[in-house]
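hey so i finally got around to running the thing on that chain from the lab meeting. sorry it took forever, my laptop kept dying and i had to restart like 3 times. anyway pasting the input first so we r on the same page abt which one it is
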Amino acid sequence: MTSAQVDKGQGGREAAEAADATTPGEGYQRALGARQIQMIAIGGAIGTGLFLGAGKAIAKAGPSLILAYAIAGLVIFFIMRALGELLMYRPVSGSFSEYAREFIGPFAGFVTGWTYWLFWVVTGITEVTAAAQYMTFWFDIPQWVSALIFTIILYGANLISVKLFGELEFWFSMVKVTAIVGMILICAGILTLGFSDAGDTASVTHLWADGGFFPKGIGGTLMTLQIVMFAFLAVELVGVTAGESKDPKSVLPRAINTVPWRIAVFYVGALIMILSVVPWTEFQPGISPFVAAFQKMGLGLGAGIVNFVVLTAALSSCNSGMYSTGRMLRDLALNGQGPKFFTRLTRSGTPLVGTTFSAALMLVGVWINYQWPGDAFTYVVSFATISGMWAWIMILVCQIRYRFQADRGTLPQSTFRAPGAPYTSIFALAFIGMVIVMMGIDKDARISLYCAPLWALVLGVSYLVLKARNPENKAFAKR
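ok and heres what got predicted. didnt touch it at all, straight out
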């Protein structure tokens, strides 16, 4: 054995040992169990994008939306398996920015961390506002009161302990899963037994009889891809939990491997059932397909049930936002790319300052939305899609670079290798690129692309200022 081989073997063992622990100094408590991680993973794939956004997508593409969700779901699986390979190499709480920092460079880590933070702040603003609007269905109270109450409750839950966050997310996800499974079973009963007001007309032939499977053409289907991908945003949240999972090397692979059946059941299966009971021509943009289906069935409680479910989905998303923003800010601070006070933890191991700062911004956003609900706020909200997809791009690029180094023997092999990589990762990158092109063509989605250069400029200037002030800081040197 040559000296080079000895050095390589020693380096591999050291890297493997490092991969068995989180980044030194993280200080988090591993309190999230298998049950909670599984439901966080499931809940991340089910949100208002499905419950509300699918109505607009159905109107644009008809039944072919089912195929769009299936193909996009396959891409999401490739992304999640790429993330899983990285997580098993080194499970860290600030996963996306940490991997970008290691495999691309310090600036990439800086951009990824702050962009993912902004994504969840913006998403939290929109979701807590939406939750307040849903409350008006039952109670005649000012919208800002509900928004304030929800924000305070979720903020407190996130500060008490990560276990309480996990419990909240578990039950939020349980409500969403139960609602979709219930809808599928009801639709299956209508199709086979013919009960309810929709029993006489329900038929799987609706999937192709009303203008064909592609009633708006292939182009119409392609134009829904940004709506479809938006519905899947937050599925990567399971990666942020890596540093606080009790047994990440066992739990995370199982959670990631459930992605295909989650998408098959909750998206493809639910849409097949709904579009078989209700012809796609009866759906309208801005109206939940679940509400429309319940109305067609003549089930009077349907509107109230769906309102409760979408309220739960909004609170779940806001809860996830508070969880992830605090950890992203702390990861940036630990690496010298953010203010040091963001590193502070509570006795229960939660990032106090980062979570407080993010929650405060969410409250400011609610106030802005109340005062100026026009175009200015729309510009900010539209940025969520492109900023969320940036995290996916970084995951894929980092996995490709990691696999190259692992195959050369300079890094230890992951115990959860992505099948078909790097070709599946390259395919996923190309697919995301196509979605971005479609966003540029669609005048309603194009607005999000206008915001990206401005945010990039802010980050670029901030990075240069930080680097100039701390020229000796190792955080600005490539590892």
